[in-house]
Amino acid sequence: MRFNSVRRYVSVLFVLTLFLTGPLTQQVYSAPSQQTTPFLDAAWYRENLIKAADLWNGGLDGQSGMGTYQDDFNGFFHVNMDREWNQLPMRSSTSVVQSRGIYMNVEAYRVAGPEEGARFLKAVNQGVDFLLANFKDSELGGFYWEVSPNGSVVTDMKQGYGNVHPLLALTHAYSITHNPDHLAAALEQYEVIKQHFLDPNYPGAILPGFSRDFSEIMGVNNIDTFTHWFEDLLALYDVTEGAQHDEIVDMITLHGNFLTQYLYHDQEGFTDRGYMAYNYDEEWQPSQMPYSRETQWSGALQASTGHNIELAFLLSRAVERGFNLEWLEVGDKLIKFCLEYAIDPTTGGMLYEVTDYDGQPLEGNPDNDLYIYWAQAETARALLHYTVARNMDYVAQFKAVEMLFNQYMTDQEYGGLYHALDAKHDLEPSNPNKGDVWKTNYHYSMFFVEVLRLAEQYPERIDELNATYVPAAS
Q1: Out of 3.40.50.800, 1.25.40.10, 1.50.10.10, 3.50.30.10, which CATH number does the structure's domain 2-468 have?
Q2: Is this model's pTM higher than 0.90 or not?
Q3: For residue 12, pLDDT beyond 80
């Protein structure tokens, strides 16, 4: 009886805290006003990053959401949730989702601080414990693709996408826990990727995946696994020392050069814009297989504009760390391609997250009329970054996509992002559910964290933009 009373007290306290500090209903949620706020309202982003993490972890009552704040939480993030953050049935989850749940809580802790963010640190440690105990193949190395809520292996393949994400989660976890076991696990996975996933025939490339024992390649060469591997390396750069750090520097140089000199292609007939394909053949040339929805992620011809703009950001972040300044030329060209063909100039949103190699919509793609959530986050992050860190004039484009993201893509009643908005029907949201194995709080957190980093590291540039920014007429 006493335990239940304490639990009820904690739940009531949690809900009261969210009500007082967070926009969880239509009456209390408010996106940053385009008319009354400066160019960048960093305080708003800080507050709402924390609120979003609480919604994902505990829902509206502290006891729903991913289940993170429940007393019996075992470290498994239950991401299948309806619009109001209530759990939906979930047979299994992937190493990607588990890793992104860890990452989200790392960033929430980093922003909230040790005193306010203790609940996020607890979630990180529990999430890492579950990841290492159940997703990791202790016998053969690497991470399984899919396990059940009780930790039983459902799919034992070593998918590339599912092996680079645990490395990111473990690296970021170490950055706040300072637990040497977390760093050791990260470096162990780094060695697994070096040994099995790096293409021996094309230095700088990473293979798509394997069977459990790494004897059979599974999947098609793609930019997705490469993008997140490059992201991993930048995270490792920040936490390693000595000879290990020197090796990471060499690895970033290798992959950055492969990205800019081999994977990137100018659009035919132009020298100022270009693309990364999503799918590549065995020689790492852009796929020429005709597009179909069924083969979109498994071999079809497409330029991945969402990843283009994400990679433009990552290249610039590498340059900030001291890497090749010439990489920025490719970053500029990738953004130019997206602005010319994929980004709607009226809304600022990325309407076409994939196109052909000339930037045209792909016939038969059912997403052609949709603004997909993750592509908007990456567009906003990259345009803001290049505006602040690179002194580019993307102010109008950023403010447009910022409004789309915070006022339309975000559920104004219950918080969190919709999956997509319908461009042909007044930006009506599509699937209202908050989460599933393909949609978590990762891209949202990435965008908000970059806002706060830029505000801290480039205060003079932010002051300049705040002073000169003139809101568009409503």
Answers
A1: 1.50.10.10
A2: yes
A3: no
